[in-house]
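Hi support team,

I've been running sequence recovery on a batch of backbones for a student project. Most finish fine, but this one hangs at about 90% for roughly twenty minutes before it completes. I'm not sure whether the input is malformed or the queue is just slow. I've pasted the structure tokens below so you can try to reproduce it. Let me know if you need the job ID as well.

Thanks,
M.K.
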């Protein structure tokens, strides 16, 4: 783990961070120690559950189940944006979730660089999209079923019931 303390300008390294984190009975102890040595304050409370927050929590929860699994899952942006190259929309992935493509046509004021594709994220296995998520709180599977993540989250106020419902056929 590399970090820069708030009150200093030197790069510090904690070489055993990940082994300590993974071996900890309570990983919060390791995070608290990192916050202390990096002079960071704990956020205290979760941010409001906006559509974007629910979407990112969904992605994080889904990927957490795959960390040590046999299947390699990735989350990729709807826009291929590499250094030195012109960003390009991943048309082939949107083709896999055609119902999401309709939302792609609607520009929003907060679209990064005016490109709606940046609002979309794909859960990908073997370079094939299995689920498309939009930071507006919508998700689509490849069969065209649309899910309202926010509405599902509001029913339970927990993210795992949402993940289990939406991604039930993708979970191990």
């Amino acid at each position: 783990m590399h970090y820069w303390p708030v009150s200093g300008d030197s790069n510090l390294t904690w070489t055993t961070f990940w082994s300590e984190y993974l071996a900890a009975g309570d990983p919060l102890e390791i995070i608290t120690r990192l916050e202390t040595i990096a002079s960071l304050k704990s956020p205290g409370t979760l941010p409001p559950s906006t559509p974007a927050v629910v979407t990112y929590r969904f992605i994080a929860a889904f990927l957490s189940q795959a960390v040590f699994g046999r299947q390699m899952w990735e989350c990729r942006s709807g826009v291929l944006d590499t250094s030195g190259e012109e960003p390009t929309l991943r048309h082939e992935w949107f083709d896999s979730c055609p119902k999401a493509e309709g939302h792609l046509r609607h520009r929003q004021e907060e679209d990064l660089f005016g490109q709606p594709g940046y609002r979309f994220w794909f859960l990908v296995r073997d370079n094939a999209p299995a689920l498309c998520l939009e930071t507006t709180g919508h998700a689509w599977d490849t069969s065209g079923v649309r899910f309202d993540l926010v509405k599902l989250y509001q029913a339970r106020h927990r993210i795992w019931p949402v993940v289990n419902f939406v991604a039930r056929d993708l979970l191990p």
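--
Follow-up from support: It reproduced on our side and the slowdown came from queue contention, not your input. Residues 55 and 124 are 16 Å apart (CA to CA). No action needed from you.
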